[in-house]
Design goal:
This protein has 260 residues and is α/β, with parallel strands linked by helices. It has a single domain, classed as Rossmann fold. Helix content is 31%, strand content 16%. The chain has eight helices and ten strands. The strands form two sheets. It has a seven-stranded parallel sheet with strand order 1-10-9-6-2-3-5, sandwiched between helices. Helix 1 packs across helix 2. The longest helix has 18 residues. The radius of gyration is 17 Å and the shape is globular. Bound molecules: 2-amino-2-deoxy-6-O-phosphono-alpha-D-glucopyranose (GLP). 2-amino-2-deoxy-6-O-phosphono-alpha-D-glucopyranose binds next to loops.
Length: 260
């Protein structure tokens, strides 16, 4: 796991956006795995700014989001599809048909999950997967005790997660109880996983993910098994790490000087 401790949240977003930009630049048909959550908002703002500056194009790109709320149609204002439109899709040159999210309103959720996994495979797999982390260590909507071998399926959200996401809804009781989410197995198949965490509220989850024992009680620990996982965190999110001096020595302020 590459742990990049950057000075602040703005730098974390720029850094993550730079990795996505590198994939957009480097491939004719890049496949991006996208995430929602407030941590991702400055990442998408940075990508939109790069697009407007003419530095990147999404024209050949395909995207797959991690998850969607069950019961919300794609045109519901709080659906993750609409969220992604507001933050990214409507502001760049991406083909709307190439932007995939699981359908939260599918009449047969199990069939929808299979369809989604098949669509990822048909696109050739995900080149770079953006991830946030929940305070309880969830990634996507893989809540604690999720099977680390699971693929896309329905998960029941914890009260903790529903409360954390209530600010996106008018009333807390509007937060759906279920989500359809890629599983840990899907995430581990991405060729590069990039997890971004900022702020002190994430420090305990980050410490467990990076340095704690692998376990389904903290699904993000599964990234310890990934051959190419990059964790980009600000100093506040890094506050619980015991080996912080080591990470700073290898990557001062999150930079990558190479072997010296
Ligand atoms: C939601 C999303 C996750 C995200 C998490 C943290 O639960 N499904 O993908 O990582 O929120 O969100 P935030 O960045 O707002 O703390």
């Amino acid at each position: 796991m590459k742990v990049l401790v950057v000075p602040n949240a703005a730098r974390a977003a720029t850094r993550a956006a730079g990795l996505v930009a590198g994939v957009l630049d480097g491939k004719d048909r890049p496949v991006l795995g996208l995430a929602t959550g407030s941590t991702m908002e400055p990442v998408y703002a940075d990508l939109v700014a790069r697009f407007r500056a003419g530095a990147i194009s999404f024209s050949g790109a395909t995207t797959f989001n991690l998850d969607e709320y069950v019961g919300l149609s794609p045109d519901h204002a709080q659906s993750y599809r609409q969220t992604m439109r507001r933050l990214l899709f409507d502001h760049v040159d991406i083909d709307a048909d190439a932007c995939h999210l699981p359908r939260g309103d599918a009449s047969d959720p199990d069939a929808e999950a299979l369809r989604y996994d098949a669509a990822i495979a048909a696109a050739g797999g995900i080149d770079i997967q953006l991830l946030g982390i929940g305070r309880n260590g969830h990634i996507g909507f893989n809540e604690p005790t999720s099977s680390l071998g699971a693929r896309t399926r329905i998960k029941t959200l914890t009260q903790n997660t529903r409360a954390a996401n209530a600010s996106f809804f008018e009333r807390p009781e509007e937060v759906p109880r279920y989500a359809i989410t890629m599983g840990i197995a899907n995430i581990l198949e991405a060729r590069h996983c990039v997890l971004v965490a900022t702020g002190g509220a994430k420090a305990a989850a980050v410490a467990r993910m990076v340095e704690g024992p692998l376990g389904a009680d903290c699904p993000a620990t599964a990234l310890q098994l990934h051959p190419r996982a990059t964790v980009i965190i600000d100093r506040e999110a890094a506050a619980g790490l015991e080996l912080i001096d080591y990470y700073q020595e290898i990557h001062p302020d999150g930079e990558e000087p190479g072997l010296v």
